[in-house]
Amino acid sequence: MKLEVLTVGPLAVRCYFIICPETNKVAIVDPGGDEGRILQKIKELDLEPVYILATHGHGDHVSGAWWLRRKLNIPVAMHEADDEFFRHPMAAQVFAAWGFEPNEPADILLKDGQIIQVGNISLKVIHTPGHSPGSICFYDGERLFTGDTLFVGAVGRTDLPGGDFNQLIESLREKIVPLPDETIICPGHDYGEKPFSTLGEEKQTNPYIVEYVFGG
Asked: The CATH number of 2-213 is which of 2.40.160.40, 3.30.300.20, 1.10.3720.10, 3.60.15.10?
């Protein structure tokens, strides 16, 4: 895998370009704005976009998704729970107050365990609810794209509509902590002391894992 990153939108989302070096196919993860810069990066690297992937349905992570969908003629993929939840008027109103347009329907509804093929790269969908009902991570066997489920040294907030702290801790315990320690954590925001980490480091230093998953 070849990886490129842009920090986009008003809330500084990390938009990842997951690139297959053999085919130049790319999946765009969390295009949360700055669509022109995203298009420029695609052109600059001569990439063939195949998917827009959402780690969850919050407006800061998907605000550019449907504009890019129409421009590039590629599908938007999101977990089925967030596709439904964030088109509900109650949830949409919260993000409208932040200046984000309502979500449009996703083209592909993802499920836990599903495999997405990007050229020769296989990405596994891991459903990790808690930050939102349909939060997911994408795992290629080496890197884990965690969205707002897990940050370097922290976890995503759970006080927004659909959030559930206990569910988030259960997702960490059951879905993320069992992965290999050498797994590279690629979070949805650069909130930590460094932009990337490893799962082994997080198991030793992340207070939410140490205290709530391992019990101190």
From this structure: 3.60.15.10
